[in-house]
Amino acid sequence: MVGDSFEYSKEAVVGKWNKWVMLIIATILLGLPLMGYVMKVLRGEKPAPEVEDWGTLFIDGIKYFIVSLIYAIPIIIVYVIILGGVIGAAMTGDETAAMAAIGGMLIGLLVVFVLAIIISIFEVIGMVRFARTGSIGEAFNFSAILATIGKIGWVPYIIALVVLCIVAVIFGIVVTILMMIPILGILLYLCLISPWAIFVARYVCQLYDSAGA
Predict the structure, then answer these.
(1) What's the pTM?
(2) Do 200 and 170 contact (CB within 8 A), yes or no?
């Protein structure tokens, strides 16, 4: 799946400079058109679709953002509670309370991390369901999501997500290094974000399709 996704994203932009420029513009516009484009990839379009019908890309991008935000709400709530506790303890001026709050924050951040992992397990499949049905409600059809994961197999599914995370870490390291280059680093970042988004979408698309009809 990694190999197929790489070839898919490479075919989408390499040698197609006009399309690549359009994707960079889509990234600059708050990323909304790029999210809309990702929806096309998640629907299983092959080869990679053209960047066109910007109105639809914007609308789909807004819907994509809304679904992502809803999935993120539990994480945001827990994080705000933890942060509020730390700030409250710091404002008391009690050093012991402040140290205890810091310890609690570390534990809280671990809870946030675990919560994010659990949510992402559902969100990955939910996003594909949303892209293919056009229904925001289907993004949160947890019984159908669990059924799909069951068809894929929990072990292969988790392994596939771990592999994607490893690739993401490698990509993140490369981007971080490039960002250290003044000006050029930002330009390279803008050039790489869209191919990466396409890569991830194609990877997730294959993972979803491995469940069968």
Answers:
(1) 0.91
(2) no
